[in-house]
Design brief:
The chain has 126 residues and is mainly beta. The chain has one helix at residues 2-19; strands spanning 20-28, 32-33, 40-41, 44-64, 69-81, 94-97, 100-110, 114-122. The protein is built from one helix and eight strands; from the N terminus they run H-E-E-E-E-E-E-E-E.
């Protein structure tokens, strides 16, 4: 079993070198409300991951039946080393790649060393 994990780590390391991108994992914290002014302050705790494996996107078309419209969504897979994060990612978190925010739809822990995240975003019409 130990050889299998070593081989897996070397494959993931090669993928990080080939497809590694800088991403930011953002975790919204509980908003605070100023009772005098009514202003809501939202803070985000962010962790920069220097090399996360971002695999190619898949475009999906979703239909909004009551409104009779549709919109396109891109879906990516991101693999992040556990040592690059301070806490386990959750579905409440989101990822920023470049200037785009991606919603986390699924989190899987892979061999107690890596996280595989399925992320999705809405695509603007050209």
């Amino acid at each position: 079993m130990s050889n299998l994990i070593k081989n897996f780590k070397s494959v993931v390391y090669s993928l990080k070198r080939a497809y590694g991108q800088s991403v930011t994992v953002c975790r919204p914290t509980t908003p605070s409300i100023n009772r005098e002014t009514g202003a809501v302050t939202r803070t985000v705790t962010s962790t920069v991951v220097k090399r996360a494996i971002v695999l190619l996107s898949d475009r999906l078309r979703d239909t909004v039946i009551p409104l009779g419209g549709y919109f396109d969504r891109d879906k990516n897979i991101v693999i992040i080393d556990q040592k690059d994060l301070t806490a386990d990612p959750t579905l409440n978190d989101y990822i920023t790649i470049g200037t785009e925010d991606w919603e986390i739809k699924n989190v899987k822990k892979l061999s107690t060393v890596y996280y595989v995240l399925e992320i999705i975003t809405t695509v603007a019409e050209n």
